Amino acid sequence: MTAATHSPLFPQVPETADAVLDGLDPEQREVAVALHGPVCVLAGAGTGKTRAITHRIAYGVRAGVLPPASVLAVTFTNRAAGEMRGRLRQLGAGGVQARTFHSAALRQLQFFWPKAIGGPLPRLVERKAQLVAEAAARCRLRLDRNELRDVTAEIEWAKVTQTVPADYPAAVARSRREAPRDPAETGQLYAMYEQLKGERSVIDFEDVLLLTVGILQDREDIAEQIRRQYQHFVVDEYQDVSPLQQRLLELWLGERDSLCVVGDASQTIYSFTGATPDHLLDFRTRHPRATVVKLVRDYRSTPQVVHLANGLLNQASGRAADHRLELISQRGTGPEPVYAEYGDEPAEAEGTARRVRDLIAAGVPAGDIAVLYRINAQSEVYEQALADAGVPYQLRGAERFFERREVRETLAALRGAARFGANDSLLDGADDLPAQVRAVLSGQGWSSAPPAGSGAVRDRWESLAALARLADDFSAARPGVTLADLVAELDERMAAQHAPTVQGVTLASLHAAKGLEWDAVFLVGLTDGMLPITYAKTDEQIEEERRLLYVGVTRARVHLTLSWALSRSPGGRASRVPSRFLKGLRPGSGSRLGGHGAAGGVERGASGGPLAAAAARRRPRGPVRCRVCGATLTEAGAMKLLRCEDCPSDMDEGLYERLHAWREERARALGQPAYCVFTEKTLMAIAERVPATGGELAVIAGVGARKLDRFGAEVLSICAGEEGMTGAEDD
What we know:
Helix content is 45%, strand content 11%. Strand 2, helix 4 (78-90) and strand 3 (97-100) form a beta-alpha-beta unit. The chain is globular, with a radius of gyration of 28 Å. The protein starts with 16 loop residues before the first helix and ends in a 12-residue tail after the last helix. Mean pLDDT is 81; it is low at 1-7, 592-599, 603-622 and 724-731.
């Protein structure tokens, strides 16, 4: 076996079920082996959630516990579903269905429609804007392009929240939603849109879910048929489910509880589409027996980036903030985040382009760099600046890799060359796979040298260059492979939408960047009025804007730059101020960083000793880092506090005094020294982290299983603000 066999692009399928668990950290392993009953995985950014749940599915399949055809894994984007299918295939669990909610529902709707309704399924309208425009015309309303987009989004929101046209104005008022037009007028337009669809016998994407829900509610026989097919469910990005998607999931499940959900309330950034973290945060209430696993070991970002991300959430408020996870970086130290102020937007774009060019010159691949902004309208100035600097870039949100014309044409040429083999003169003199692929690419007009400039010509070159690099990686990982083998691999990737990476700096909105990561990230345009956006008025909307910045920060592995411009154009009045979210984060802007989010670990439901069960899994193994400055901790006292001794404490002084008094009284009742109850450092750690659950208390050093069972309920009561001492008669 050669070293190349272990290429991360083409890993070997694990030989046994137990081998699937190799390389998982303790908490990821807990996820993987939790194959029965409800499971909730609270996974912070960069903590390997996809790795954990795909290994869980694969382990269950390989161990014979989960029949592949009985598992349905659902997520929110075709890219995420494709990545999941690719990983499952590499783990030897290729028969598992991994789909988006819409894809899974559409498949069921197509199959059951003739039986439930009769006749063919109505045609699916992929873009509803034209129908909305016609509905507006019938209502004698004139909408410009932006108004049309806004009204279309309102209709989508109404449908995923299961709001009918007549109820739309009241629903807007209840939700305190900032409607783009008069709600009564929008409700009228919404009703006309639905009427038009009925007249033309068409349905939209939201109808796919609504109709599937309707059939499953009305036809128990069909619901049971689906439940016999799918008996185990995994839901990724659970913080993003809408009420309609949650209802569909409940109908799929029926009375069963074989459900694993994964999410992070701190990454809820799509509430405008109807997404809500409430289903994630209420999971333990709905499923008291659930196993809850918290993943906080961040493998993506350096301590410096993680420190900033934790500090950003430490300033947050609201329900999602109450359940935030404090990440612990598992990487080595890196550069401090850079804060850059510019006089105007063009200067900010030019400065960003220079920094990008410097990183590329220093060896950072262009494909590992991203420029992220709040709204897509900000992209143009950065496109121009990067083009002027000679830096290749790609806009996030373009058509899928395998759907690009040049890629489809090249795949056809590769299939032909593989079929004719030595009889194809195009391959004369090409002795190995990389040379053969480059020969085919040359026949498509490609050369190894990139064209000058940017635009469509450069985009085409980058697509074909990605195929050439893939051939190199494939050949290195599996010596002796043929062109036919590569074609088969590409066909499988196309089916799974597992595309190779195009090399170019990514330009994307913060919303579009969710789920992605880069070595270097530039967060630009960070001014009040842009982030938070000017139309974010309520506390909930402001907090979602903060979470959007948090998502942006946690996309960075090593290099992170945050910048803003004081005016829009050169010579303009410098009236802008940096985003309020940067206060206390950037040097010289006020309060320090710090905080005490939830620690990692496992909380088990079911019967018997929840505190003892919570203590069964202790603090994460591996490097322990200061949660204030990110430094590696070596002293026992510092490791107990999870901070350097000289780093500032955020201890709740009142809580500390109450704990101290309780400890003295408890020690007297037991006839023991006070330190036998808890040491001074343990009391300080409890007062700093203010645990709310047995799991959060269990991960504090000095709180063992015995002390947790003996004192845990009392300590949690004191932390919750309740007074008094119970169980003093214990010995």
